[in-house]
Amino acid sequence: MIRVTLPTHLRELARISDAVELAVEEPITQRKILDALEATYPMLRGTIRDIKTKERRAFIRFFACGEDLSHEPMDAAVPSDVAEGKQPYRIIGAMAGG
Questions:
Q1: Which pTM was predicted?
Q2: Beta partners for residue 20, in sequence order
Q3: Which domains are present in the chain?
């Protein structure tokens, strides 16, 4: 099982209070994690990725094992600690401004 953490506003939209656990087929990639998340919580479709292009939305970032995966290929394997459920895949709302 893959653990995914979401920012507060997306947890509220999905009506969940903590990290979610998802069954994801191997090889485990960012795309497969997000596909499983959107399949389980359809109200999140379009909030993390554009519905048509599946590109990451601006101000959304992906982290795992202390690494920013936001600009990594979506079909690259995630770190083994995430794939093994030892570490969460984190979806974070970025901040901007000055």
A1: 0.93
A2: 4
A3: 2-93 (3.10.20.30)
